[in-house]
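Figure 6 in text form: structure in, sequence out.
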């Protein structure tokens, strides 16, 4: 497909445009918080707590007098870092395992798939509880738990897609030319399933953000004084009638971010899958 044609399809894809816009906004806010926030998130002003949105504090202040907008910005930074590393762990281990299972078959494939079944028995929340019992709560433990949960997701997808590619005629030709399994996997198989892996990564990124927020809400994720959207929700639940905005703003941040990433993933799938383009 020509570059101009692909650009035209991207501009005509509403899911891709809306999801991409929300995703870019989320990433921009996270990066901006590294350089600037309206107020320091560690600044406590008891006399100024529970302020309503104003020119001084666009989203008001919380029960400690901290600026809510600043907390949301740094919380976005935390969500991006946790999700990136967790999805990186899942793809870094899952893709090679799935590719190995598709290339070797036999007992190796069976062993990889049974490992996947075992890993699926421990979702991110349960894994975090077990890790926390051993090492204590924290962002690192959240990353490990979410990353472990992502490994079988990528392994199953890679194996299923790679098995289809291994049956193609050009793979038979590569074998006849004397290429080994590793060479065929790297040169021919993985490039042909990269589109699927990219789309899956965007979906898992959204799920990782949701999982991190859930773990922080339960006190198993990011710990004070580092802001987190999930812990902001936890802090706000006892003040729902006094200041409901303290729950609304982080809830909207989570919902819009996950919504945008899911739309972006759907748009990428529509753009990269030629069967969907023909439809």
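Output sequence:
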């Amino acid at each position: 497909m020509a570059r101009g044609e692909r650009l035209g399809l991207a501009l005509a894809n509403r899911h891709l445009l809306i999801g991409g816009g929300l995703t870019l906004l989320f990433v921009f806010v996270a990066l901006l918080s590294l350089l600037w926030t309206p107020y320091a998130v560690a600044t406590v002003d008891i006399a100024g707590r529970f302020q309503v949105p104003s020119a001084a504090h666009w989203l008001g202040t919380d029960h400690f007098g901290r600026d809510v907008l600043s907390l949301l910005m740094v919380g976005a930074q935390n969500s991006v870092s946790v999700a990136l590393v967790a999805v990186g762990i899942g793809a870094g281990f899952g893709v090679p395992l799935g590719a190995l299972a598709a290339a070797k078959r036999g007992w190796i494939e069976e062993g990889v798939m049974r490992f996947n079944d075992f890993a699926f028995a421990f979702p991110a929340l349960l894994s975090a509880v077990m890790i926390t019992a051993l090492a204590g709560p924290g962002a690192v433990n959240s990353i490990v738990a979410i990353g472990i949960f992502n490994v079988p997701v990528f392994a199953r997808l890679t194996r299923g897609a790679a098995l289809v590619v291994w049956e193609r005629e050009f793979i038979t030709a590569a074998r006849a030319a004397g290429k080994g399994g590793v060479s065929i996997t790297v040169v021919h198989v993985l490039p042909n399933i990269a589109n699927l892996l990219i789309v899956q990564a965007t979906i898992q990124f959204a799920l990782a953000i949701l999982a991190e927020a859930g773990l922080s809400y339960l006190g198993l994720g990011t710990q004070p004084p580092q802001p987190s959207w999930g812990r902001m929700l936890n802090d706000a639940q006892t003040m729902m009638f006094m200041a409901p905005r303290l729950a609304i703003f982080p809830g909207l941040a989570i919902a819009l971010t996950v919504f945008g990433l899911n739309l972006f993933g759907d748009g990428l799938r529509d753009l990269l899958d030629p069967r969907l383009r023909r439809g």
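Caption detail: The two ends are 16 Å apart (CA to CA).
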